[in-house]
User: Fold this.
Amino acid sequence: MSVYKVRYGTPEEFVPSKFAPAPKCEIIEAMPEGLKDMEFKATKRGAIFRMPIEKDTDFFGFGLQLKGINQKGNKITIQNNADPRSNNGFSHAPVPFFITQKGWGIFVDTARYAKFYCGKQKKTVYKDVDLNDKKYVASLSTDELYAVKDFSVDVELIIEIPYAEGADLYYITGEKILDIVMQYNMLGGGGCMPALWGLGGYYRTCGRFNETQALDMAKRIREHHIPCDIYGLEPGWQTYAYSCTYDWDTERFKNYKETIKELTELGFKLNLWEHCYTRPTCTIHDDIFPYCGKSLVFDKGLVPDFTIKEAREIFASKQRDLVNDGVRGFKLDECDGSDITGGWNFPDCDEFPSGMDGEVYHNLLGTLYGQVNKMALGNLRSFQSIRSFGALCSSYNYSLYSDLTDPHDYLRGLVNAGFTGILWTPEVGGNSNTQEELRRRLQTVIFSPQALINAWYIEYMPWEKFGCEEMVKEILDLRMQLVPYLYSKFYEYYRTGKPPVRSVLCDYPGEDFFKNCEDEYLFGDMLVAPIITPAKGREVVLPKGTWYNFFTGEKLEGGKHYIETNDVPVFVRDGDIIPLAKPVEYMPEDVKFEITLRAYGDAKDASFTLIEDDGVTDDTDYREITVTMNDYNIDSFRYEIVGTEEIK
Ligand code: GAL
Assistant:
């Protein structure tokens, strides 16, 4: 496993690595064997790279790709966009990093709309190819015809970075895809470590609500015992939202300080919606004005240039006031922009005072914005929402979300995001048409980084129209049972870069089925195969070996199975211990979990490591507490093991 860095030509000034935390891996500045055939040219079009690749090379990664998994043969453009419509690379979080199943991956240190041709046919003198194969002629569908790709001729990887005269390429090697992914994450400073409460229930309430309504809803959540740690206010808390003032609307939130206090006393962590486009009536407007781009966004919103220290500090100072009042996180919206829905964001040719242009800033903004709001939180850990990210951002405590609600896309996001250092939450909105749809969406979101219910445009809880609160509580309780498990998996992410949610292919490289599987993924080490269409069950493919149904304990061997269930199909590897907590409604700092250790199969040599820390700050000490099925008498303020269960 190694990370090589090779410089080609002259790299640009504004690149992801310039703003990333210090790498936590060794970087070898030498030409690796794998790049020796890379041709590089600095041209008028920009920097162009070409390299022959093996014909059967598959490509994974490129950030939060909602429309496709294996990009073999495709053209992927790394362009930030809130409304991806097809599998062309556009994404809330596009990342110029891909992994192959051949033991290598490449990260291109650029914020440009770089294009990756993932196996382009090369001009060839044909020798052993049957040129009279007529199989495509009879097709009547353009989709089929356009999908024609021939990998029997020589193919190459082509990367084009517009305007650039060069770039640093990081060539990352590793035996498994997971090794390569982990090294990429360590290059970005390691994985993030959210606040413990960040893994609990997360409810965003109606944006039209005033103080009384918002508080009433919060109280109802408690009265009804619906697990919830994070309570989010949407645009209506501000005096003006498109663009933002970051000031409380004191007509609608007259006693906002009292409200924050009350919410805090109820055990909620308040999260506020915002975006960074700053309104003339905002108190920091005049100070930040010199450090903003030339174009405005939404109604008169300035676009702060967060590559400039002054802009970062001025903006963070405003958010810090909110944190000092008791706010514990933000939802950083609209930092992606769209080329499809009206082009509402700043232009690609915009000019920023640092010298950066709009194109580059589109791909950097989410990451930099996330950093600025973290400055406001100081050493407080949180787990926040952001709508755009980019390269090298694994260490930031944010998960992505989207307005695009297609359950297939949402599930694909869970498979894909972990390839390139980002977290993705398939939030449950107010749009479920049936109780069944709501159930399936909830079952998916609890097996994701955040258990997020975003009711921003409805005045009731999404399940009220179906009268199925018990079902919802049961699903959210399951999430709460799994919090200690997930926390340990985040700790691994933080220390080693191993993503808590990832493609099955990461861990099971020989299993070719998962190269194109869009609807199964790993949550920690459990395999999750959500049911997202109205159905009694679904087909599930398990990697080789013995597995157990998490709920029923049924023993299954690797291969194809039809699983009929009202639960979400979840499977545990033979020999794994899962710590299950007695569900709590929320997690105050001194929360203590009563844990049952559940072992699946032969777990006599197995152990599980629980993580004990203060749960809320960056400078806490982490204590690793390892338990086995025979030895679990622990002295911990966070956990008490109250029993064991064995599933054979
Ligand atoms: C959207 C966001 C939604 C909601 C809404 C409020 O951009 O994705 O979740 O916050 O703004 O205006």
In short: The domain at 501-573 is CATH 2.60.40.1180 (Immunoglobulin-like).
